[in-house]
Design brief:
By secondary structure, this protein is of the alpha/beta class. It has a single domain (4-301), classed as Alkaline Phosphatase, subunit A (3-Layer(aba) Sandwich). Helix content is 39%, strand content 12%. It has helices at 23-26, 30-35, 70-79, 83-87, 97-105, 108-114, 127-135, 142-149, 157-161, 173-177, 188-199, 211-218, 221-241, 292-301, and strands at 4-9, 48-49, 53-58, 119-121, 204-209, 248-252, 271-277. Strands 2-3-7-6-1-5-4 form a seven-stranded mixed β-sheet, with helices on both faces. Strand 2 and strand 3 form a beta hairpin. Helix 11 crosses helix 13 (221-241). The longest helix has 21 residues, at 221-241. The protein is globular, with a radius of gyration of 18 Å.
């Protein structure tokens, strides 16, 4: 049975070839460029297939007016349904009642668990997050809501310390410097290797990286360049350890943002979807965010 590692990057679109505004146009990205036959993930980059990967520019707007948002975009990614159209518009960042109802009723996490597949969310959360959720001071974003609704446990500090999960920054450096935790700190490439090792214990493992959206809203160009270069090295580490002859890596996003640091808003740009390794042909008809779940079903549940 193949395995899937789903690397979700919040708020990353395909922008202009403008190094003064777009970190993806300015950064050194050897791993991603190799997957694109030397090109960069930009708005002008067409669907590309190489020896090990398929790149598909992916519509995040879903035919609904307005700027795509995190809650509805992530819900579409996790359900295969056009959630913005169903609820009457884009919504975010956190799920409203309508989006929450959809995610509690079912997602790809539910489907896989019902079929006896092992699934996990490999993003680790500090104790203060769990405390805030329990007190009602904080609510789940779409991905942890879907995971917990399907009966999955969220990873905590002990899981990060044991290497079963990673902090949202991949390397755990934030946990050490800002939270005072004694968790291990990795180089980006080591973090990718650790992520691949943790994901190998499951049929489907998802990691949520929200820092890209945060930098898109608040960071400088230099922050964006450093971040996407880090992600490129994390991916190199994943590919060091992932069996591409048998298993698949999915990378995608929910909406644009980081690719245009000339403003602080989401964009209408398509988002990059990379399908790396075995099973990528199952996503040949992917064109928007609703196409991920059908492809995952074909790979892991062997549906037509």
């Amino acid at each position: 049975m193949p395995r899937i590692l789903f690397l979700f990057l919040d708020g990353v679109g395909l922008g202009a070839d403008d190094p003064a505004r777009n970190p993806l146009a300015a950064a050194d990205l050897p791993t991603l460029s190799a997957l694109l036959a030397g090109a960069r993930p930009l708005a002008a980059t067409l669907r590309t297939e190489t020896a090990s990967a398929l790149f598909i520019p992916t519509d995040a707007g879903l035919g609904v007016d307005g700027l795509p948002q995190s809650a509805t975009g992530q819900a579409a990614l996790l359900t295969g349904r056009n959630i913005p159209a169903e609820i009457g518009g884009h919504w975010g960042p956190k799920p409203n009642a309508a989006v929450a109802q959809v995610l509690r009723a079912g997602s790809i996490f539910h489907e896989l668990r019902s079929a006896g597949r092992r699934a996990a969310l490999l993003s680790g959360y500090p104790q203060r997050y769990f405390d805030a959720i329990a007190s009602g001071r904080r609510s789940y974003s779409a991905i942890p809501l879907a995971a917990t609704a399907a009966g999955l446990d969220l990873a905590g500090e002990d899981d990060i310390r044991a290497g079963r999960a990673l902090g949202a920054d991949f390397t755990n450096a934030f946990w050490r410097s800002e939270l005072g935790s004694d968790v291990p700190v990795y180089t980006p490439r080591e973090a990718g290797q650790r992520l691949a090792a943790a994901a190998a214990e499951y049929d489907f493992a998802l990691f949520e990286h929200w820092v890209t959206d945060y930098v898109g809203h608040r960071g400088a160009l230099s922050d964006g360049i450093a971040l996407v270069e880090q992600i490129d090295q994390v991916l190199a580490g994943v590919l060091d350890r992932w069996d591409l002859a048998r298993d698949l890596v999915i990378i995608t996003s929910d909406h644009g943002n980081l690719e245009d640091l000339g403003h602080r808003h989401h964009t209408l740009n398509r988002v990059p979807t990379f399908l790396i390794g075995a099973g990528r042909a199952a996503f040949d008809d992917l064109h928007d965010l609703t196409g991920l779940v059908p492809g995952i079903r074909r790979v892991l549940l062997q549906t037509v």
